[in-house]
Amino acid sequence: MIQPLPHPLDEHLAGLLSRLDAGHADARNLQALVKYVSARTRDGVIAAPLADAPVTDWESLHSSPVIGQEGEYKPLILSATHAWLYRYWLYEERLARCIKEKIPPIPPFSKGGIESVEGEVSDLQQQAVELAKDSRFLIISGGPGTGKTTTVTRILAHLIEAGTNPARILLAAPTGKAAMRMQEAIRETRQRLALPEEVSSRIPDQASTLHRLLGYIPNRVGFRHHADNPLPADVVIVDEASMIDISLMTHLFEAVPPDARLILLGDKDQLASVETGSIFRDLCSGDALAGNRVVLQTSYRFVAEDGIGQLAQAIRRADEGHLLAVLDSPAYSDVTLDESPAGLDTDWLRNGWRDYVAAVSGGGREAVFRAFNALRILTPLRKGRLGVESLNPWVDGVMQRLLPVHDGAQKPWYAGRPVMVTQNDYRQNLFNGDIGIALPDENGALRIWFPAGEAGQYRAIAPIRLPAHETAWAMTIHKSQGSEFSRVLLILPEGEDLPLLGRELLYTAVTRAKQGLHILATRATLGRALRQVTPPASCLQERLQADKTPGQA
Ligand SMILES: Nc1ncnc2c1ncn2[C@@H]1O[C@H](COP(=O)(O)OP(=O)(O)OP(=O)(O)O)[C@@H](O)[C@H]1O
């Protein structure tokens, strides 16, 4: 049995529901159930399996006025197998209903003459293009470099050739950074593919954040676009869909017009959203959506002698032997393992950020941002000796000695200090996860610069106006989602925080690195991470397979 950790939120909810229950149920069992469901929800689980609940007497719970069956309006919902907080049960139910409406095929659009002039394409990529023709809902999952952008650009070309108005094709991603990457990737791909100019030039290349697409209203849960005011779109394409939590996914589905196509791109093996619910992974398993999904398998970016690609493959397949063989083999020089506890070395920082130090000393902003991505330290933890909260001050100390001194910089600021925004600030258009770098402006005043809209464009924010933020030399693996770095220094601590470290976390960390990966961990830690997988977060599969959505009359 999993014993929930005592957390003030769980305690508070348990106390509240106990008072509302007013003695109908056995208090100890009710509190144990509420704390368990609340704790699992905080962990990102939407439907908490009853099999793991620390409840000894279920009988008395059924008489509680705070517990209801599916379809009832009660704080806690119980089925024969799972328990939900009402809000999440409702999201799951609404989302399942939307998805079901999008499963039946629509008449395919007519086939144009593009095929013959395109370059190489795998069978699975072609299958995705074919599916897109008569599907209102399509999932394309694949690891880095498997051709998701190539495939979706081809789909866009077909749609446009068949008469879809490009202005009614909307592109979005969960974060500003991911949206920017999406538009850059589509621009590059449409140039690379040998498409007729009249089609290629009309492929849209503007992507927004999902919040902006849906019409965020400050301080409200809902959005401007919803079922009664749907998006002005015939096609909606969303990248990095593994980062979308259940609430945002439900709002997205509800805002897409019934006849419009929705295409989700992502990597099912990556970590789920930081918020509640690994919805994308749940949608990528089971049979219900088998006809609406393509999982691309081959990475065209990694070559056979590329250790990072081999490691990613070993992790996906949970092949510990292969994982360790790759790390041990001198043939894969791009990946190294250091098992010594004193492995963290300032030389790594000095070498890894050499170009960064040079760029801050005299390069342009673009060069600074590019050089900053040469190295990143990733760890699963926030707290503890090897968590970001301890690593960042240590790196701060090393880097401040290397970076140029800037007169007038007030602590903790210094030229070259990278920060990550940790709270959305809609007014300033800054979002959780955005990275900025402190650099002097034309007048010599230190400002925090953020990439803005187009590649190569930056905007400055005064330090005092910055929303909550933290130094970003080291970041958690969760926060690194959607970013890639030339080299990654991955630190996997031992010890009591290990439950955090699972296969998806390891896979996400490894696939952030493009050219080099240095891992500080023991083999035992790596093996344990490989064996630990996150179970489904929701009962979406069951709902999608059921003839009727539970809770409906
Ligand atoms: N079928 C194919 N045959 C050969 N090369 C391919 C094929 N499909 C894609 N590629 C190449 O692989 C590279 C990666 O493709 P693409 O950018 O579409 O992948 P992706 O899945 O979108 O990557 P990421 O997740 O990193 O954004 C590109 O250089 C592309 O030209």
Structure notes:
- The chain has 553 residues and is α/β, with parallel strands linked by helices.
- It starts with 7 loop residues before the first helix and ends in an 8-residue tail after the last helix.
- The protein has helices at 8-21, 27-42, 86-102, 123-134, 148-161, 176-192, 197-200, 210-214, 246-255, 279-283, 307-316, 320-328, 346-352, 354-362, 365-372, 388-402, 503-510, 523-531, 540-545, and strands at residues 48-49, 67-68, 76-78, 82-85, 137-142, 169-173, 207-209, 235-238, 261-266, 293-296, 335-338, 375-379, 418-421, 435-440, 446-451, 458-461, 469-471, 474-476, 485-491, 513-520.
- The strands form four sheets. The chain has a six-stranded parallel beta sheet with strand order 7-6-8-9-5-10. Strands 11-20-19-12-18 form a five-stranded parallel beta sheet. A five-stranded antiparallel beta sheet has the order 16-15-14-13-17.
- The protein has three domains: 8-85, no CATH class; 104-109 and 121-301, P-loop containing nucleotide triphosphate hydrolases (Rossmann fold), CATH 3.40.50; 307-531, P-loop containing nucleotide triphosphate hydrolases (Rossmann fold, 3-Layer(aba) Sandwich), CATH 3.40.50.
- The protein is globular and about 70 Å long.
- Helix content is 35%, strand content 16%.
- The longest helix has 17 residues, at 86-102.
- α17 crosses α18 (523-531).
- The protein is built from 19 helices and 20 strands.
- The structure holds adenosine-5'-triphosphate (ATP).
- Adenosine-5'-triphosphate (ATP) is lined by residues 120-122, 125, 142, 144-150, 185, 300-301.
- Adenosine-5'-triphosphate binds at residues 120-122, 125, 142, 144-150, 185, 300-301.
